[in-house]
Amino acid sequence: MESLFIEPFRADFMQTGLLAAAVVGVLCGVVGCFVLIRGMALMSDAVAHGVVPGIAVAFLLTAGTAGEDPSRAAILLGALAGGALTAAGTSVILRRTSLRPDTATAVVFVFMLALGVVVISGSDDYTVDLTSFLFGDVLAVPSSEVPISAGITALVLAAVAVLYRPLVLLCFDRRRAVAAGLPVERLELALLALLTLAVVIGFRIVGALLVLGMLMAPPAAASLLTRRLPAMMAVSSGIAVVSAPLGLLLSWHLDTAAGASIVLVAVGFFVLALILRPSRTIRA
Length: 284
Description:
The protein is an all-alpha fold. The chain is built from 13 helices and no strands. It is globular.
């Protein structure tokens, strides 16, 4: 039994990966609740893909021709810039046109994804290395990144605590938020900023293409188990955190991709919740 559950975590890289995945789980578990209630799944996917061209450009600018590793700080800044550009571009289109939100998001989505593919396809020397950023490599996360991720997570959670009531009103009833005199546009930008930060931190662990799973699966499972938003956030974070060690164990014993295994476990919790409990109406 010890060799099955304990032995894998004796390795330093497994311990670091576990801590990093747990931190990201808390972040995505909380932010994902707002994403779910606000109906921003497509926006989350757009931002997750929007980081790809930013990552690619930063990679190509900082990786030397002799095969040196790219600057991790530049990669994070590139991802943040790509995600922010995606969110800002969508916001501008919505303000200046009468397009539906899903249409505006889809336009920016395909543009950023196509741009990322063009940048990657034009640089054959770095395509293989870029896959670690697209699909994640939780077992290669350096220990120095865990405190940084934890610090950003703490800042995001503090912002959620401060803006909790206005964000709740915005997510549940935008018209009522406008009638209450709340700065709706600023709140929407703040929510997009929180989403972007969650994606940028999450992509390094589970990859840009899988981070949506961590943003959606735990909150979706939690929404089937509780009616109140604070409890939903707690349950969602708990599911995401528990998915980390279970996913890593699955990856260790079956020799599968660690990030994808973590996401699969999170989705498994949703399926289990779907079987055990009916859907409930979420309340603030």
